[in-house]
# Entry
Amino acid sequence: MAADAEQSSYFVREIEKNDGCVLKMKQCYKGDVGCVVWDAAIVLAKYLETTQFYDPASGVNAWADTCVLELGAGTGVVGLMAATLGAQVTVTDLEDLQTLLEVNIQENQALISSGSITAKVLKWGEDVADFLPPPHYVLMADCIYYEQSIVPLVESLKLLVGPETCCICCYEQRTEGINPKVERQFFELLQQNFNCEEVPLDKQDPEFSSSDIHILHIRRKV
# Structure
């Protein structure tokens, strides 16, 4: 009965990879925003598979043996995609999301061969010593959401993004309520220390992309 109760607390969203394998992401019926797979996470996950990063036919794999850190991972779909492509991934979120992250890592472990993935707690604005030296990539999907988290998020980026790190940020532009203000505050703070370059739609996955979902490459100013 306990197992049945555990299973009934989840529902699954499937994301098909370009090689035909399927990531099976469990989501929670109850919980905060981190408990479901948001569209921006799928757009970012599929972007990692585009030929500029990953093209087995021509021997291109930008993810092989790279160190990747995902912030605000939620269900873990972005980090899991990177791990299936050969990256050494750490997915991070608050304590409350660790069980869901572990469940999804176990569910998709068979798709990971040369890569790896582990889940850890990281609260933005707090100590990041466990995640240094800076990774090759920092990944973020729909993290620009709560006004109170903007300053701590940028502080964490300042500590985690080294001179060689590329931070890839994907977010859905929302026009209602406080969202435009939150986005504006985030980018005003971010641009004090970082340069941002938007990825055009024609460089994204042709199916999993949208004009209101933006992908940015963020690098430390030199």
In short: The first strand starts at residue 10 and ends at 16. The chain is about 25% helix and 25% strand.
